[in-house]
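Quick one, tokens below:
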């Protein structure tokens, strides 16, 4: 059976994809900069091969991709370093082609679209006209990959995701609320809380990616994976309150507050330009993907919140006892 490589494997999406491959008994390679992080996440899985890489070294990239048929790309950068995305893609793509990789799957975002122009829900043919720096960098990343597909260098596809949440997902809009729901204290959130929004439950992503690997018709195109339906942050906070019996104190940062916080915190500073997604919602249409691969399991928000809260309890027993 051919081997799959997960570049940027140690993150939440990478671990979801690995779990899906593991459930099929399929061997896979995990690639990252830190051997320690990879061994912590995957060291007990006999199906996982741990490989480190240096993306600045063409030889290292090629070695990490050697013997691989399908490369799944989830390489992250600091939120204030999005200028690195296109260059990292170029280096990885060149190394993958040199190593003879046949298929390349990029896990993408909605950033390249910019503001919604066609009304919701948004399909894959929506204009890509990003008005933000981060959107332009993500678009450039996608363009490099899909141009390589069009020129015959490699077969490529992009799977775009909305905001995500789930057990252990700290980079979620809902993470601080989940912590406060379990441990008490104040939930720091980014508003507006009552605008329509959607979230994909991270454990649902891996099985979809695993199906794309074995779907040749997926390549050469871009696909959406939508969340479990339209909701709001406030509705999900209310569900946390219902499940824990705890009324949450909320501290909500709007655009002005993000600017002020950004004077001291580079992550908050970089959230300012993306705040439009909180005021001008973008909801995804994934009917094309479902026609391609069949019905997709989407965990209902009630169950996703239950599992997310359970993960907080498991990782913070001392705080729970104190609460």
């Amino acid at each position: 059976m051919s081997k799959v490589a997960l570049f940027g494997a140690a993150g939440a999406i990478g671990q979801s994809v690995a779990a899906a491959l593991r459930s099929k008994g399929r061997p896979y390679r995990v690639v990252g900069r830190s051997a320690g992080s990879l061994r912590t996440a995957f060291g007990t899985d006999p199906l996982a091969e741990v490989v480190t890489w240096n993306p600045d070294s063409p030889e290292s990239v090629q070695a990490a991709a050697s013997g691989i048929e399908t490369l799944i790309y989830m390489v992250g950068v600091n939120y204030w370093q999005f200028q690195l995305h296109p260059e990292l893609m170029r280096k990885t793509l060149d190394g993958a082609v040199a190593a003879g990789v046949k298929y390349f799957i990029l896990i993408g975002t909605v950033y390249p679209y910019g503001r919604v122009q066609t009304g919701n829900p948004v399909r894959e043919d929506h204009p890509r006209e990003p008005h933000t720096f981060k959107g332009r960098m993500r678009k450039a990343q996608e363009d490099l990959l899909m141009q390589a597909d069009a020129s015959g260098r490699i077969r490529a596809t992009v799977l775009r995701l909305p905001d995500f949440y789930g057990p252990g997902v700290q980079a979620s809009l809902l993470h601080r609320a989940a912590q406060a729901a379990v441990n008490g204290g104040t939930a720091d959130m980014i508003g507006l809380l009552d605008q329509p929004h959607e979230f994909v439950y991270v454990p649902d992503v891996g099985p979809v990616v695993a199906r794309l690997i074995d779907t040749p018709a997926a390549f050469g195109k871009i696909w959406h994976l939508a969340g479990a339906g339209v909701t709001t942050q406030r509705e999900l906070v209310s569900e946390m309150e219902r499940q824990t019996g705890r009324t949450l104190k909320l501290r909500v940062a709007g655009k002005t507050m993000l600017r002020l916080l950004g004077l001291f915190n580079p992550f908050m500073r970089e959230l300012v330009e993306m705040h439009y997604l909180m005021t001008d919602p973008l909801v995804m249409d994934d009917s094309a993907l479902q026609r391609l691969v069949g019905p997709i399991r989407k965990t209902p928000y009630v169950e996703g919140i239950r599992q997310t809260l359970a993960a907080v309890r498991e990782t913070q027993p001392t705080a729970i006892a104190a609460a």
